[in-house]
Each structure stands twice: as structure tokens, then as C-alpha cells.
Amino acid sequence: RDMESALDCFVDDCIYETEDPVFVGAFHGKEALREHLVRNVEVLPSACKIILDDLAIDTDSGTSGVKWHLEANGVSIPNLRGCSMYTMDEATGLLKSAFDVTESPVKLPGVALDVLA
Question: In this model, does residue 1 exceed pLDDT 70?
Fold first, then answer.
């Protein structure tokens, strides 16, 4: 919940995209990213924490991927998992782009897939 420390990891002209059941959008620049992060903090209880499950880093391309889930008071919250991809600015070592995908809390039953086919 330390927004300034989080924002210090990004270049000024960063691009942060999210496909989330609540917060869908693209945020350009640190100020837009700050507003997005503050909205998240206002919605999530203070007991919520993002727990990193897995991390993959490609140092050659400057990309990384993270698998994560959300917990409250040490208990995983069902259907709140996601993956994030990041690209790094080689000159500064800071993040220049991010793309988050959060698991949908609503699951389509198998028969719904037949209708869509």
C-alpha cells in the first residue's frame, strides 16, 4: 500500500493495462497509474495482500511474468488470482509497461460454451 515506492519502479511515461472484473483499462503515465492504484486501495480491505506465487524473468528481453493471488488475513480469496507481464526499460532498469489479467469471479458453465460455439 506504499504507492510512492510502487510508482518509483516505473518510468514516467509507463503504460499499465489491466483486464480485471472491476478495473478494466489502460493507464498512461505515472499519474494515471497512481490514480488506478489508489482506486484499488480504496476498494480492497486493508487486510488484503497480493501474494506472489511464481516469477519468470527473461533478462535478455527485459520481460517478466508473475502469477499471484489475493489473500485476506492469510486466507486465499476464491477466484482472485491473476497473471501480470512487465517489460523493463533497458536504460533505467525501471518498468515501462505492465499488463494484468485477473481471474473472472463468474465462471460460465460448460453448456454455455456449446451455445457460443
Answer: no
pLDDT digits (tens, 9 = 90+) for 19-51: 877 778 899 999 999 998 888 888 888 888 889
* Spatial CB neighbours of 106, under 8 Å, sequence gap ≥ 6: 21
Run of H or E including 47: none
Phi, psi of 104 (to 5 degrees): -75, 135
Residues 43, 44, 45, 50, Cα dihedral to 10°: -170
Coil vs helix vs strand at 29: coil
Distance CA(60)–CA(63), nearest Å, equals 8
Which amino acid, 108? Answer: L
Rounded to the nearest 5 degrees, what angle is found at the Cα of 81, between the Cα atoms of 111 and 113?
10
